[in-house]
């Protein structure tokens, strides 16, 4: 006898990431691009034991945070994108897939 179990679940899905400065979407053609700012305030401050975080779009980083001397380094894309298979899947999720051309039909006629 084959036993199958089914269960309905509610799943929360992120549909956009908004900049906490300007309110615009951080979505690009490929993914979401933003800077994450985080602070854990400790004792001796007026913000004792508060945790702050914000997502800031590239435009706001360039326009509003240019006074900060960020420490910059190159990105290790293998770490960011994962394996070749993970990278290919991610790219396929964002680009249109063209129909297979069969029997010489290019679809342009």
What does this structure look like?
This protein has 109 residues and is of the alpha+beta class. The protein contains three helices and two strands, in the order E-E-H-H-H. The chain has a two-stranded antiparallel sheet with strand order 1-2.
In terms of topology, how is this protein built?
Elements: E1 35-40, E2 51-56, H1 58-64, H2 77-81, H3 84-94
Antiparallel strand pairs: 1-2
What is this structure, in a nutshell?
The protein has helices spanning 58-64, 77-81, 84-94, and strands at 35-40, 51-56.
Low-confidence stretches: none
Strand count, sense and barrel status of the largest sheet are: 2 strands, antiparallel
| Count of alpha/pi helices | 3
End-to-end separation in angstroms reads: 54 Å
User: Would you list the SSEs in sequence order as H and E?
Assistant: EEHHH
Specify the helix fraction band. Answer: 10-25%
Task: Name the descriptors.
alpha+beta; extended; 109 residues; two-stranded antiparallel sheet; 21% helix; single chain
């Amino acid at each position: 006898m084959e036993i199958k179990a089914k269960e309905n679940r509610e799943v929360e899905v992120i549909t956009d990431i908004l900049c906490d400065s300007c309110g615009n979407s951080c979505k690009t053609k490929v993914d979401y691009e933003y800077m994450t700012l985080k602070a854990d305030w400790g004792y001796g401050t007026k913000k004792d034991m508060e945790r702050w975080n914000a997502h800031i779009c590239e435009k706001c980083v360039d326009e509003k945070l240019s006074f900060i001397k960020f420490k910059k380094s190159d990105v290790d894309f293998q770490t960011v994108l994962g394996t070749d298979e993970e990278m290919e899947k991610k790219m396929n999720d964002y680009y249109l897939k063209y129909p297979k051309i069969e029997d010489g039909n290019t679809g342009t006629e």
